[in-house]
Amino acid sequence: MGFRLAVIGAGWSGLAAALEALALGAEVTLFEMAPAAGGRARDLNAGSDDGLDNGQHICIGAYSETLRLMATVGVAEGDAFLRLPLRLVDARGLGLRLPSGQAMPAFIRGALGRRGWSFPQGAFPHGQTGTPEELARTELAQETGLRAVRLQRLGVLAVAHGMASQYGEHWLATDLTQGEPDLEPEELGLRHAWVSRDEFETMTRDGRIVDSATLAAYALLLMAERRGEVSLR
Ligand SMILES: Cc1cc2nc3c(=O)[nH]c(=O)nc-3n(C[C@H](O)[C@H](O)[C@H](O)COP(=O)(O)OP(=O)(O)OC[C@H]3O[C@@H](n4cnc5c(N)ncnc54)[C@H](O)[C@@H]3O)c2cc1C
To answer: Is CATH 3.90.79.10 the classification given to domain 132-226?
Structure first.
C-alpha cells in the first residue's frame, strides 16, 4: 500500500499496531521513550541474575488476539506459557479455582463449587425501588416460594463495616405458606431446605454456611428472643 506511519509507544498495543501496519505494507517508525520495548510487560535487566520479569503473568485463554500476535512473531505458546485451568485466588489461597475442561462448563462447575447456604437475601434490580419490607417479602417468595403473613424487623447492620456503605435489613418471617419459587436467571439451580437450629449451627461450624449476613441475622434473632420480643420455640 506504501504509506508511512508513526506508532508512539512500544508496549503490547504499539507493537501489535506496528506489526499490523507492516503486514499492510506500511513503512513504520516506532517511538519509545523507555530504554527497552515492552511497556508495562517488559523485562527489567533481562538475562541477568537480578533480572525481573514484569509480565504478562496471567494471560487468560480468551486473549485470542494476544495468542495470535505471539504466533505471528514466532513465539510458541507452549514455550512461553504454562497452560492451567483458571485460578483467581488471593494470598490466603481463597477464591475461584476452575476444574480443567472446556471453558464454560468448567466455569459453571467451578462457580457452583463455591456455593453455600444462606438465608434468602437480595437487592432491588437496577431502576426499581420499594421499602425494605417489600424487598424482604419479594426475595423470600422468589427464592423459596414462601409467602409470609407477618414480617418482624430484627435490625439493620452494615454488610462490611468500614469497607462498604452497604447496609442490610433483617426480618423474621412467620405464618408461612408454601408457593412456587420464582427464580431469576442468575439464581437458577438455587435450592432451599428447612434445617433445625442444631443443624444450622453445625453448618456454620463445618463451613457449609459462610455467609456473614446469615450469621448476623441469626444473632439478631437470638437477641430478640432473649429480650422476649419474639418466640419461635
Ligand atoms: C506488574 C504488572 C503485572 C501485570 N500483570 C498482568 C497480567 O498478569 N495479565 C495481564 O493481562 N496484564 C497484566 N498487566 C497489565 C499489562 O502488562 C498491560 O495492560 C499491558 O502491558 C499494556 O500494554 P499497552 O501497550 O497498552 O501499554 P503500555 O505497556 O503502558 O505501553 C505504553 C508504552 O508507551 C510508551 N510511551 C508512552 N508515552 C510515550 C511517548 N510520549 N513517547 C514515547 N513512548 C511513550 C511507554 O514507555 C510504554 O512503553 C500487568 C501490569 C503490571 C505493571
So the answer is: yes
Interval 148-172: pLDDT, tens: 999 999 999 998 888 778 899 999 9
List, for residues 8-40, the tens digit of each pLDDT value: 999 999 999 999 999 999 999 999 999 889 999
What residue ranges of the chain are covered by domains with CATH 3.90.79.10? 132-226
Nearest-CA residue for atom 35 of ligand 1: 9
For a pocket test of ligand 1, which of 40, 57, 60, 82 has the largest count of ligand atoms closer than 8 A to its C-beta?
A: 40
- Give the three cell numbers for residue 165: 456503605
Residues of the chain with CATH 3.50.50.60: 4-83
Locate the ligand 1 atom nearest the alpha carbon of residue 13 and give its number: 25
Give 82-145 as a DSSP string. -----EEE-TTS-EEEPPSSSHHHHHHHHHHHT---------PPTT----HHHHHHHHHHHHH-
CATH code of the region 4-83: 3.50.50.60
Residue ID of nearest Cα to ligand 1 atom 39: 9
